Amino acid sequence: MNPRISQVQHPAPMMPYPANIRQLSDIELLRQANEARNAVLASGLQRLLAGFAGWMQRRRAEAELRALTDRELADIGLTRAEIPFVLAGDMPARGVEAPKAAAAPAAANDRFRKRAAA
């Protein structure tokens, strides 16, 4: 192709769409835009309602835990100070852990480890 020929004179190499894609009409484009907008609004509303329902559930659970006596809280392994952490899910799991075996100290005159007594 002659480099002096501009795109206006020879527009074939630059096509706006690939050959296998049809150009959308204005009505179809508007319909697709409306569907996308409605989907975004619906998902946002669903997230908002789910967040509100979760908040209400946490509020009810907090009211029930605060209504318990200290003895009842101790029976389930909680204190009043731990209630917000339990509801937020920040409480570490408390399990009965086996005590770790302490290493026996080496003898002071242990020549094998080259720690002879003074």
Helix content: 40-55%
**Weakly predicted, low-confidence segments:** none
**Order of secondary-structure elements:** HHH
Separation of the first and last Cα atoms: 95 Å
Report on the biggest sheet.
Answer: none
From the alpha carbons, calculate the radius of gyration and give it in angstroms: 36 Å
Oligomerization category of the chains in this entry: single chain
Query: If helices are DSSP runs of H or I spanning 4 or more residues, what is the number of helices?
Result: 3
What class do helices, strands and sheet pairing give?
mainly alpha
What fraction strand?
A: under 5%
Mean pLDDT: 77
Number of strands: 0
Based on CA inertia axes, which overall geometry fits? Answer: elongated
Textual characterization of the structure:
By secondary structure, the protein is mainly alpha-helical. The protein has a domain at 26-88. The chain has 3 helices and no strands. The protein has helices at residues 26-67, 70-75, 83-88. The longest helix is centred in the middle third of the chain and has 42 residues, at 26-67.
Features of this protein?
118 residues, mainly alpha
Topology:
Elements: H1 26-67, H2 70-75, H3 83-88
Summary?
With 118 residues, the chain is mostly helical. Helices cover 46% and strands 0% of the residues. The protein is elongated.
